[in-house]
Design a protein that fits this description.
Length: 375
């Protein structure tokens, strides 16, 4: 199979860290890296539409193959012409395998070397998810980038279990590569190993020999302490092939993104900015704002004076608090617009600092350690 569905160009490497400035070229546009991918689990980010994402400069979004397989069904999406046409998204799309979702269904799934048998959390129906079936699902969806099936052990897993799990993930990765039929979908392998550095190293070396288009650091942010997450990311990222994009799955806070970039990560996703927005937690250049606090009731200030998003340019904290207290749906939209703009703009500033070879993580970390957290 002659394949080059994804091109990655490494444009510059920081001299003060392992940070990388790169560029992904996909069939649906050019994506500058490091990049944060907003999460649109079911095809769109909750409360937003593709125009919102385009306007804020989010050229790569994440959808979840596990959820779309269950509803409306991957074959139904294929009949619509693929996920781009189905959702109206013109930018690039990455589909997560749903491995984390499957393995979080402890009472509803059974793992074997063949794959995972699980009952749908929607209607209880039984499904067999094998590496080959997941390739079929994602080829039906037709994303620009797809993730292989992996086993995601929790943070407290014993060493012997992690070793067996990593062997299984490697075997599944090889089966997924052999099952591909489309040349226009890029595939990423996922490095596991829990908190064991020697297992992480061995798995990164083994997967690095396989013809993946990129690689991800998986199995972090599943119960570990923040210090352990940073240790594993800092250790694992440099082990991945330097000529391929590196993706840190499911992480995280603005601080996590800054530290991830310093480790050499190119791609990030997390539900935090959207979920926190819905729950009343807003990110700013000086820390978090908890919009329900009474201090904001009569405030005419925007969420963040330094922010150029539509919400901050047009609405006060006092009005947003009113909408939140009334459970008004427009609050969700305005808050989500702001939080994602903050994340996308943060990555834009980081990219510029890498271009200028002036990337200093403390520039972004200090305001958050000293600012109005929780106000």
């Amino acid at each position: 199979m002659s394949r080059r569905p994804l091109q990655f160009d490494l444009l510059k490497t920081s001299t003060t860290s392992r940070g990388r400035r790169g560029r992904l070229t996909t069939a649906h546009g050019v994506v500058e890296t490091p990049v944060f991918m907003p999460v649109g689990t079911l095809g769109l980010v909750k409360s937003l539409d593709p125009r919102d994402l385009t306007a804020m400069g989010a050229g790569l979004t994440l959808a979840n193959a596990f959820h779309l397989m269950l509803r409306p069904g991957d074959k139904a999406v294929a009949e619509f012409g693929g996920l781009h046409r189905f959702s109206g998204c013109e930018g690039a799309i990455l589909t997560d395998s749903g491995g984390f979702q499957v393995f979080s269904l402890e009472s509803l799934r059974k793992v074997t070397d063949d794959g995972v048998a699980f009952r749908s959390p929607i209607d209880g129906s039984l499904h067999d998810l094998t590496p080959e079936r997941l390739v079929e699902v994602q080829e039906n969806l037709g994303p620009d980038i797809a993730m292989v099936l992996d086993e995601c052990p929790n943070a407290t897993a014993e060493r012997e279990y992690v070793l067996k799990s990593v062997d299984r993930t490697t075997a599944w990765a090889k089966r997924a590569l052999a099952a591909r039929t489309r040349e226009d979908v890029a595939w990423f392998g996922i490095v596991q190993g829990a908190l064991f550095e020697d297992i992480r190293r061995a798995h990164a070396e083994e997967l690095g020999e396989l013809p993946f288009d990129g690689f991800a650091v998986g199995g972090v942010s599943v119960g570990e302490a923040k210090e352990e997450i940073e240790r594993i990311v800092q250790f694992t990222a440099p082990l991945l092939p330097p000529e391929k994009p590196r993706y840190l799955m499911g992480v995280g806070t603005p601080e996590d993104l800054v530290r991830g970039v310093s480790a050499g990560i190119d791609m990030f996703d997390c539900v935090m900015p959207t979920r926190n927005a819905r729950n009343g937690c807003l990110f700013t250049s000086t820390g978090k704002v908890i919009i329900k606090h009474s201090a904001h009731r009569m405030s005419e200030r925007p969420i963040d004076e330094a922010c150029g998003c539509y919400t901050c340019q047009n609405f006060s904290r006092g009005f947003l608090r009113h909408l939140f207290q009334c459970k008004e749906i427009s609050y969700t939209r305005l808050a989500t617009l702001h939080n994602l703009w903050f994340y996308v703009n943060l990555m834009s500033e980081i990219r510029q600092s890498l271009e200028d070879d002036a990337f200093v993580p403390t520039r972004w970390l200090e305001p958050w350690s000293q600012g109005e957290k929780g106000l």
